[in-house]
Structure formats: structure tokens, C-alpha cells
Design a protein that fits this description.
CATH architecture of the largest domain: 3-Layer(aba) Sandwich
CATH superfamily of the largest domain: P-loop containing nucleotide triphosphate hydrolases
Number of helices: 17
CATH class of the largest domain: Alpha Beta
Helix content: 55-70%
Order of helices and strands: HEHEEHEHHHEHEHEHHHHHHHHH
Strand content: 5-15%
Radius of gyration: 25 Å
Bound molecules: zinc ion
Structural class: alpha/beta
Number of domains: 3
Strand order of the largest sheet: 4-5-6-1-7
Distance between the termini: 65 Å
């Protein structure tokens, strides 16, 4: 992440650049501020800048109004951009779950963290991350194993970077039991080692740790910056972005959740309509193609789609011509439900529920998604054929 890829926060970025150029680099810094304000991307851009071998200035290139930035192209920058620099260490809240069954720690989740971080431009909420780890209702914390790993990693000589960087994301989730061990590391740091703590609730961090860090206050994004960021980096039109930015109060995570909810709904509607039409016609080639497409969505989006499908089945059961709920739906959905609801009856609805609920269960448990969806589709084909036969009898 380069400074110019950050949404907003220009005055703060200039302060970070100036202090770096003046050689005032505190070895432990706490990037603190509300959710969705680019704290983590900022911390990473700062680390990348410090380690860049070919820093650029406004005289060399268009930096979008900034005075200096990392090049984004030297070997160090390339590794930072991929979150895969050998001297970049991440620690974040974690716990056992679907992926890690025993003695979880941050390093177990590193591949997911990198993939998730890059996909989301390093901006996501703690809840988003907990959902990505699939750890159910368990609490996520930075635990004793993380602490031991951190100490082991710091005991190794720095490999290649000017500054070895340890990022502690959501530092308020550092377990109390390890605060004192961690404190020693913060008090007697290895040379050229930089601790970048990121937190939304610094008041929940132990006072002794807090007193060893220099605080970098990161304010909420302005509506204007948030709106601009949604257009430039997330592909929304200005007309789409404006109301979302206004409602999000400077929180990019909230704005994105709003937007994805809206986008997801439309996509689910389209998939569900196609799925049921293909089942009705017993169009096997289309069902196979659709199963492949749904498999590519990934487990969590597919689970949401299946939940959406359950809700639609329920709606069909409730909605019959002239019923009140029907009138509240948009016209195109009314037409679909009108055509489809005769095939959902009190007799066959339990079978629909069972097979979709089973699919939800197995999606979360590493079943082959494409086979699973094909199997569910063929069962629905049979249910529809039976209902057609009854109606024609
Ligand atoms: Zn560089």
C-alpha cells in the first residue's frame, strides 16, 4: 500500500512523511481511531515507505498532492504490497474454528489474512475478520502463543529490511495474561524494529503498554473523502456513493457493508430466479453451469445465497394471489413469485427446507460446493416434476 492509495487522511500522511524524513521514528506507535478510517492501510503504507529503496517525491511523479511516497516497485515495496515481506510480521485476534482446530495463533491464519486483507484493501472490521475466520461465537484474542511466536521471530536477525515491522492489529484484543511479557519486548526493542499497534479502543489496552507507545491519532474520514474513495477504489458511481457516504459517518466499513448488502440482494435475486427456472425446465446443462458459478462465489457468499433462497421459499408459501405481502414486492419479483409459488405447497415445502438447510450445513464443512449444488438442484427438479405431474393429472 502506497500513501497515495490511502483514502483521505492527507494532513496526517504529510506529518508521517515529515517525521520519517526528519528521522523521528518512534519504535512503538499506536494508530488509533474509529472503525473504517484507514488505520491499518496507513500503518502499512508508513512501513512500506520507511523500507522503500526508491522513495519518490512530488518532483518525480504525480503523487496526488502528496510530497513524497514509496515507489511501489522496488523489491521491498513489491513484498510489502503483497503483505509477504519476510520482515513484516502480523498479529491479530484469532481463535480455533473451521480452519484451525487446535492451539490457534495468528501465523495459522496468515494465508487467509493476506488474501482477505488484499481483497479488502486492508479495510475491514473486527467482525468481518471474525466471520472470515469462521470461528463461530468464540472470542478472538491475541494470545500467549502469538506472544511466544513474536518473541521467537524477533530473536532472529532481521533478513533484509531497514526496519523490521511488527503489526499488532486490534491491540485492545491483546490478552491481559501476555501484556507483561509483551511489555518487556516493547521496552527493550531490538534495533531497527518497529511496532505498529492498531486500535479502535485504546482505553482497553493496558496502561503500561499504552505508555510505551507514541499515539498517532487517525480521525474518521470526511464524507467527501469517503465518497471519493468509494468512486475511485470500489467502482461506485458518484450518485451511488453520495447517499452511502453520508449515511456512513466517515466509516468505510459501514459504507461497504451497505453497498454489498444492496448489491448482494440483486445478485441473489438473479441467481435464485435462474436456479428455479432451470429446475422447472430440468435444464441440466444450465444447472451444471450455475453450480460451477455458485461454487466460484466462495463458501460464505454461497451460504448467504442459500439463506436468501430459504427466505424466498417461505415467501412463496406465504404468498398466494391477492395476499397482502405480495403487494409490497417490486413488480418483477411479484411476477416470479406468482409463477413459482403454485409449485411450493404445504406438502413439499418441508422437503425444500430440508435440502437447502442440508446444503447450508455442508457448505460450511468443506464439501465440494459444485457437487453439492448439482445434487440439491437435481432434488429440486424431482420435487417440481412431481408437482407438475399432480397439476396435470
Ligand atoms: Zn519502493
Amino acid at each position: 500500500m502506497r500513501f497515495r492509495d490511502i483514502i483521505g487522511q492527507r494532513p496526517l500522511i504529510e506529518r508521517l512523511i515529515a517525521s520519517a524524513q526528519a528521522g523521528r521514528i518512534a519504535h512503538a506507535q499506536l494508530f488509533s481511531g474509529p472503525e473504517g478510517n484507514q488505520k491499518l492501510p496507513l500503518a502499512l503504507a508508513y512501513a512500506q515507505f520507511l523500507n522503500c529503496r526508491h522513495k519518490v517525491t512530488a518532483a518525480d511523479a504525480d503523487l496526488g498532492g502528496l510530497s513524497a511516497d514509496s515507489c511501489g516497485q522496488c523489491p521491498s515495496c513489491v513484498k510489502f504490497e503483497r503483505l509477504a515481506h519476510p520482515d513484516l510480521h502480523f498479529f491479530f485476534p484469532n481463535n480455533i474454528g473451521e480452519l484451525v482446530k487446535k492451539d490457534a495463533q495468528s501465523t495459522d491464519y496468515l494465508p487467509l489474512w493476506r488474501e482477505f486483507g488484499l481483497k479488502n484493501r486492508l479495510e475491514f472490521s473486527l467482525n468481518d475478520w471474525i466471520e472470515a475466520m469462521n470461528i463461530g461465537q468464540r472470542q478472538a484474542i491475541i494470545n500467549i502463543r502469538d506472544c511466544h511466536t513474536l518473541i521467537e521471530q524477533l530473536a532472529l536477525k532481521s533478513c533484509e529490511a531497514d526496519y523490521r515491522v511488527v503489526v499488532l492489529w486490534m491491540a485492545e484484543k491483546i490478552s491481559d495474561t501476555i501484556s507483561s511479557t509483551l511489555l518487556k519486548t516493547l521496552e527493550e526493542p531490538e534495533p531497527q524494529t518497529l511496532f505498529l499497534l492498531v486500535s479502535e479502543n485504546p482505553d482497553q489496552i493496558s496502561a503500561t503498554i499504552l505508555s510505551r507507545t507514541q499515539i498517532v491519532q487517525v480521525p474518521a474520514l470526511s464524507t467527501e473523502d469517503l465518497c471519493g474513495g468509494l468512486v475511485t477504489h470500489y467502482g461506485l458511481s458518484a450518485a451511488e456513493a453520495q447517499p452511502i457516504a453520508e449515511a456512513a459517518h466517515g466509516n468505510l466499513c459501514r459504507a461497504l457493508a451497505d453497498w454489498r448488502g444492496h448489491e448482494g440482494e440483486e445478485q441473489h435475486e438473479a441467481y435464485f430466479t435462474r436456479w428455479m427456472r432451470a429446475c422447472y425446465k430440468a435444464d441440466v446443462p444450465d444447472l451444471l453451469d450455475l453450480s460451477e458459478q455458485l461454487a466460484r462465489l466462495g463458501r460464505e457468499p454461497l451460504r448467504l445465497f442459500l439463506r436468501f433462497s430459504l427466505e424466498k421459499i417461505r415467501l412463496c408459501l406465504l404468498c398466494h394471489e391477492g395476499c397482502g405481502i405480495m403487494a409490497q414486492l417490486p413488480a418483477d419479483q411479484q411476477a416470479f413469485i406468482r409463477n413459482f409459488s403454485p409449485f411450493i405447497t404445504a406438502e413439499n415445502a418441508p422437503a425444500y427446507y430440508r435440502l437447502i438447510n442440508d446444503a447450508i450445513y455442508f457448505v460450511a464443512r468443506n464439501a465440494n460446493i459444485s457437487n453439492l449444488m448439482t445434487d440439491a438442484s437435481l432434488q429440486i427438479c424431482r420435487l417440481m416434476a412431481a408437482e407438475k405431474k399432480k397439476k396435470n393429472a
